[in-house]
UniProtKB/TrEMBL annotation:
Main location class: other
Organism name: Anabas testudineus (Climbing perch)
HAMAP family with a match to the protein in the record: NDP_kinase (MF_00451)
Family: Belongs to the NDK family.
Gene name of the encoded protein: NME3
Protein name stated in the entry: Nucleoside diphosphate kinase
Length: 169
């Protein structure tokens, strides 16, 4: 039932999700917050030219996390993942820009930090997969669902990026 509601909600948010209006969900996980990497991560996205349209510090409930990681529920690490993600605050963000989903995934690096290149967030700051400090949506569809799960519509801001003309043609 919750998946159906999220799918409907994602469809409501769908309009305007292409081009420079594409959005993605990024979360700095509890280990990233504890290691004081939030500012560095925000800085990287801002320097890239993406626009921050939503941000909040939240102690995610187990229900929220179970819904977020629903696709992983049959994996042996699922229970530990929920425990880890609920162990401290998470910084949830929504970023907007041209190709932001794909570019953000490249900026994050591989899920397993051992496979991440230097210069990526995980390549620069992570050692093991169980503490990989950051989550990013893997598709526009996932971003729509994740954003609607973590943010209410009125928590997302619409504003003009004054540097936009220097970023986009």
């Amino acid at each position: 039932m919750i998946c159906l509601i999220l799918s409907v909600f994602a469809q409501i948010f769908k309009s305007g999700w292409t081009g420079v209006n594409e959005r993605t969900f990024i979360a700095v996980k509890p280990d990233g917050v504890q290691r004081k990497l939030v500012g560095e991560i925000v800085h990287r996205f801002e320097k890239k030219g993406f626009k921050l349209v939503g941000l909040k510090l939240i102690k995610a409930s187990e229900d929220l996390l179970r819904e977020h990681y629903w696709d992983l529920r049959s994996k042996p690490f699922f229970s530990g993942l929920i425990t880890y993600m609920s162990s401290g605050p998470v910084v949830a963000m929504v970023w907007q820009g041209l190709g932001v989903v794909k570019t953000a995934r490249q900026m994050l690096g591989e899920t397993n930090p051992a496979n991440s290149l230097p210069g990526t967030i995980r390549g620069d700051y992570c050692v093991e997969v169980g503490r990989n400090i950051i989550h990013g949506s893997d598709s526009v569809e996932s971003a729509q669902k994740e954003i609607s799960l973590w943010f209410r519509h009125n928590e997302l801001q619409r504003w003009e990026h004054s540097g936009g003309r220097w970023i986009y043609n």
